[in-house]
Structure formats: C-alpha cells, structure tokens
C-alpha cells in the first residue's frame, strides 16, 4: 500500500513538473533598424557598401555630385554681399535723413520712407543669410554618413542613379541588442509571466543557450499566427545571433555553452 502510494506520488510529481514546462518558438528581429534617406536631390556619385557589410558610425555611405550645390553656395554668398551693400546705403540714408529732419529740412514722410527702406534692407540681409545657410547645409548633406555602428541590411541605390530628397538609400541595424518574438498558445499563458527567466537558443547554434527575461506578453491573439506574442530582449554583444534567426525557448533550464 505504501509502495503504491509512493509510486502514485512520484508519477503525479513528474506530471505536474512537465505540465508547467513551456516550449516556444520564434524569431529574432532588429531592435535598432535605421533608415537612411537622402536630404537633397541629385545624382549618386559614389557608394560602395553592400548588404551584410559591417559599418562604423560616421562612415560615408554615399556621395551625391557636389557641383550644383557648390555653385548654389557661391551664388548665395554673392547675393548676401549685394543685400549687405544695399543695407549699408539705406542705413546711411536713414541716418542722414534723421539729421535733416531734426533741422526741419526734410518732411516726416520722406523720413518714414527712408526708415522703411532701411528695415526692408535689414530683412533682405536676414533672408540672404538663411538662404546661404540652407545652401551650405545642402552641400554638407551631399555626403551621407552612417549614424551608428552596425550592418547594412538593405541597399536601395546605385551609382549614377538620381535620388530625390526623402528617398531611402540604406537600412542599417545595430545587433548588439536584439528583440526575440516568441509565439505562445493560450495554454502556455498560464505558465509564463512578465519578468520570468527563459532559456533560448538558435536553430543555427543549438549548443549556445542563453538566459533572458520575458519583457512583454501580448493580450490579443495575433491573427496571422493564431498565437500570443512574447517579447524578449537579447544581449548580443558577441553577435552570435542575427536578425531573422529561428529560435527555440523553454522554461526548463539545462546547461549550455
């Protein structure tokens, strides 16, 4: 009788233990994808980066032909000099008219006109400075730089192609940290919770197991997968995982390399 009860208890313990073990599958996704767009319109002069290339922050991704932009800067500098000269004349005239008006040698209307001309000349100088700054910024933006350390995951441009302002040139990503999106059934939800440790590994390298923490669990069934999304963040400084890798995860921990 005692032996029978012991066997029943052990069997029940094994059943309970396994009933709480959760096995999930999913994929890694980029956490910090950056879309690089052109800030100016023009013809691509050079671009040598390909999909999969590692890239460092401040590396030049592409260069747009500069000639027209250099001419635009020169033109705006010349325009600024013209309006500055006009401002100097109007300022001198207004000062002289003020002195004449003080002596009653000039009508108030003539002084008002001179004052308005002076104010308009000042405004023209400010506008010319804005146009010059814009031309200089456009010239600077003919070279497109990477804002991050990472990898090229998409290239949308070739040398000699015309691009418009706002056209996407590249997509970059940093994979030092990745997101993992796992799929849980409604029966799995009773055995997992936010903050719970979970062990993961990639199909490409099943011997390399890592432990991560569940960050979020979806509250609505995904219409495409018919599962609840489970979001996890993976520390990936050694770049052993790549975006798009198939993952397995379990709440039953085992030793791994």
From TrEMBL:
Residues 34-174 form the CzcB-like barrel-sandwich hybrid domain. GO terms for molecular function: efflux transmembrane transporter activity. Residues 186-250 form the CusB-like beta-barrel domain. Keywords: Coiled coil, Signal. One of its GO terms (cellular component) is efflux pump complex. It comes from the Bacteria. Residues 1-21 form the signal peptide. Pfam families: Beta-barrel_RND_2, BSH_CzcB. Residues 97-140 form a coiled coil. Gene3D superfamilies: 2.40.30.170, 2.40.50.100, Helix hairpin bin. Belongs to the membrane fusion protein (MFP) (TC 8.A.1) family. This is Efflux RND transporter periplasmic adaptor subunit. It comes from Vibrio qingdaonensis.
